[in-house]
Amino acid sequence: MSSRTPVAVAASAGACALALGVGAPAMAASDTAEDKSMVSVFHGIPGMTVDVYANGNELLSDFKPGTVTEPQSLDAGTYDIEIFKAGQDPDGTPALEKEVKVPEGGNATIAAHLSAAGKPQLTAFADDVSQVDSGQARLTVRHVAAAPAVDVRAGGQPLFTGLSNPDQDTATVDAGTVNTDVVLAGTDTVAIGPAELKLAEGTSNVVYAWGSADDKNLALATQTLSGTESPSGSGHTGGGSAAAPNSPDRWPAWAAGALAVPGVLVARRFVDRRP
C-alpha cells in the first residue's frame, strides 16, 4: 500500500466507523452537512463477489453482484480503494484499485460494472434528486452492460435510443406503472425484459442494464432516489438554487471515473430485477 495523507487516514477512520454502524470521529474538515457527500454504489459485475478495502481497512465483505450498499453519507476526503475477490488475501493484487478524492455536497452513484468489451470498470454517475412536477416521475436509464448500443422502450415505444455503455439518459414521465424492455439499437430484438416499473409520483428512478450479452446474463436493476418529492399542489420543479447541494453540476471533475466506498453510502431503495 502507498503512504497515506492525513486526510486519507482521517477519511478512512470515519468510513470504517460508519461501516460498523457507529458514529464517525469528529473531523476538522467535516463538521457540517456541507462537508458530506451522498454516495451509493451499484455492483454490476456478474459472478464476482468481492471484499472492499479503504486505506488498508476492510469496509465490506461478500458484496454480491446486483446489489447496492446500505445508505449512508460519506465524509469528503481521499480514499485509497482496493477491491478483491471475496476471501482473497488483501496483500495480493486487487481486481480493481482507485484512489478517490470525494468532494463536498454532492449526490452520486458509483457503478462497478463491465465495459462494452466485457472488462471490469468503475463509473460515477451524478444523481438528479431535484424536485419533480406533480403527477410526474423521473426515469433514468444507465447502460453498464457488456453489450452493444440499445434502445429502451416504454409501452412498446422508444423512450431512449442509441444508448451506449457507460452512458445514461433521463426523461420525465407520467407517474404510474410502465412496461419497459431493452432492444438492440434500431431493431426490435429484445435484449432484456419486458419488465414492469412502478414509478411513484415525485420520485427519481434509475434503471441499470447490466451483465454480459455473451454470457447471456443481461438483467435490469432499479434504484429509487430519495428527496425528490414535489410540494403538494406544486407544479414547480426543484432544479433551481434550492437543489444546488445535490445538483449534478457539483460532480463534474470527480464523476469522470471515480470510485466511492461500498458500505459508506446514502439513502436508496433498491430492487434486483434479475430474471
UniProtKB/TrEMBL annotation:
<feature type="signal peptide">
    <location>
        <begin position="1"/>
        <end position="28"/>
    </location>
</feature>
<dbReference type="Pfam" id="PF14344">
    <property type="entry name" value="DUF4397"/>
</dbReference>
<protein>
    <recommendedName>
        <fullName>DUF4397 domain-containing protein</fullName>
    </recommendedName>
</protein>
<feature type="domain" description="DUF4397">
    <location>
        <begin position="37"/>
        <end position="153"/>
    </location>
</feature>
<dbReference type="InterPro" id="IPR025510">
    <property type="entry name" value="DUF4397"/>
</dbReference>
<keyword id="KW-0732">Signal</keyword>
<feature type="region of interest" description="Disordered">
    <location>
        <begin position="225"/>
        <end position="251"/>
    </location>
</feature>
